[in-house]
Amino acid sequence: MSLPSERRKSHRYPCYGPFDFRIDGWYITTGKIVNLCLNGCLVQPNLQSEVNVDDILDLRFEVKHLTFRARCIVRRVALDGTLGLEILLLSDRTRRQLKDLIEEFDSAQQQQPQRAITR
User: Fold this and answer.
1) Residue 75, Cβ neighbours under 10 Å: how many?
2) What is this structure's pTM?
């Protein structure tokens, strides 16, 4: 059986940090960010949230002591409660900071020795 085609535009990097988001100015939930790329992220809310695919939200998250704010759209709501978000809008400064962070993740990943495949 073949795997479904990958729809992401760029590689996601595992990371950790807190987040919160609002829909239409209402406080919704907090949780942790699971992975991140230039175009989106996967988040795990602390509590089950009433979020649906195509909801637009204002996301604030922190990774490596850097705080980011972004306008996002929910692209996936998984059975385990994780939310796949696409970043729609970032300020130029925030986009540069996010790009720098992603480059740091990429550099660290490339420096890790490749694990031998054993059977």
Assistant:
1) 14
2) 0.76
Instruction: Give, for 25, the enclosing helix (H) or strand (E).
Output: none
* Alpha carbons 89 and 45: distance in angstroms, whole number: 21
48 membership: H or E segment, kind and range: none
CATH superfamily of 13-108: predicted glycosyltransferase like domains (2.40.10.220)
Q: How far is CA 50 from the centre of its chain?
A: 18
Calpha distance 104→106 (Å, rounded): 5
User: pLDDT (tens digit, 9 = 90+) per residue, 69-117?
Assistant: 999 999 999 999 999 999 999 999 989 988 888 888 777 767 765 554 4
Reported as a single tens digit per residue, the pLDDT across 23-33 is 777 767 788 99
